[in-house]
Amino acid sequence: MELHKVVTKIQEHMWLGNGDQDYIMMYAVARAFQVQSILEIGTHQGASAITFCEAILDNGDTPHIITVDNWCGIPSQPQDEDYKIRMKARALGFMKEAGYDKYITMIEGDSAIVLPEVFEKIGNVDLCFIDGNHSPNYVLCDFKTCSKYSNLMLLHDCYETEYLTPIRSLGWTALSFPVRFRKVEGGNDKISGITLVIKDTRKYTKPLER
Questions:
Q1: What are the angstrom distances between the C-alpha of 140 and each of 84, 111, 164?
Q2: Quick one: 5-187 is in which CATH superfamily?
Q3: Which of 42, 58, 104, 170 has the most CB atoms in a 10 Å sphere around its CB?
């Protein structure tokens, strides 16, 4: 596949921390599992939502995507109100440029606060994409909320991290895929990846024909 031209534009002009392989993985999962409804945590500038839309449309289906963000940054790098306004406007602008804004609903707020209300309104979804605050407590909080409404999740920037142990202990299958290396403090490379989390693998597999 080729990345949508708007996603490429976002990558070229704004630092995202993602490589092509991140979006290829998102696209592949959405197509392979034939998802149509997605709840995303972590809108940022809209590249992931655009990629998911493209995958669903390529499957011949209509996307239904809700994406949540407060654009406050991470605890170690908090952002001001001006940043929030600019990022939200950019995300909406890129979605419109891609022609996918009609498929995407943006909700501003802290996922820990707004998710229960969102799910109460929309019910179950085919896929949850968790890419907000990456600290273990936040990821596990988002996971526990999403686990009530979806059997399939993607955890971004998560490669065999400590919070996969409690997720697996709850009976979920977690498969981590390394997609890139990134520099961390001290100059060492750290593997970054995407983890596919499935509650019941039998739902997505068929017995081999003999």
A1: 24, 12, 9
A2: Vaccinia Virus protein VP39 (3.40.50.150)
A3: 104
